Amino acid sequence: MNILSPSILAADCARLGEQIDLVQQAGAEYLHIDIMDGMFVPSISFGMCVVSSLRKYTDIIFDVHLMVEEPTRYAADFARCGADIITVHLEACSNVEETLEWIHSLGRKAGLSIKPATPIRCVEKYLDQIDMLLVMTVEPGFGGQRYLPASTARIREARRMIEEKGLNVDIEVDGGITKKNVATVLEAGANVIVAGSAIFSGDISQNVRDMMEILNGGGKKAEP
Ligand code: DX5
Ligand code: ZN
Fold first, then answer.
1. Spatial CB neighbours of 19, under 8 Å, sequence gap ≥ 6
2. How far is the CA of 175 from the centre of ligand 2 (A)?
3. Which band of pLDDT confidence, cut at 50, 70 and 90, is reported for residue 220?
4. In terms of pTM, does the model score above 0.85?
5. Counting atoms of ligand 1 from 1, which one is nearest the CA of 65?
6. Residue ranges of domains in the chain
7. CATH no. of 3-215
8. Which of 2, 13, 66, 145 has the fewest CB atoms within 10 Å, counting from its CB?
């Protein structure tokens, strides 16, 4: 099953509730929440109070992407604030295995993310401990960047590794995904699609509907 996870980094924060209603009503099942600490990535985004306020407002699944150095420091806070899926970066953890165990012990799904320069094979030994692999398709840190074309082969490699092991792990992609290239990442094996600018610029409901149509198999063929 393919899932759309709109990234609120591109939303109008003064109208967050309203815009979340729009994406949910149009068919998005996840909400992607980017947490940036100014260390792992240069920028700073949302904190716990934003997540807990939104949790009281909506029941949509919170897909929380921690771009945070040593994320064990905050996993329990975000679990308490309402995160359903907690994704950490391989490059940010001093002990990846313990971090993933910690997230599961909090009763949350665990995601593991890698930056574009990290070889896909580095996640192989963790695949049986995760619910989702997040393959970054831009350098993490900012919305509105261009999809890195080398990502397509990386997604394909990840899907092959997961299939070879007979595992049921979602592959999420994040960064520069648009209506034009989403068919390409789906074809390569991604099934959880993050999109920020492509959803929150212009007509939000229409953007979600267009994207959902492609996710549900009704869209264009993948670009070569
Ligand atoms: C980037 C963030 C993304 C970002 C994607 O570091 O992890 O989730 O919001 O934005 P777009 O879809 O605009 O590239
Ligand atoms: Zn993200």
1. 8, 11, 12, 200, 204
2. 7
3. low
4. yes
5. 7
6. 3-215
7. 3.20.20.70
8. 13
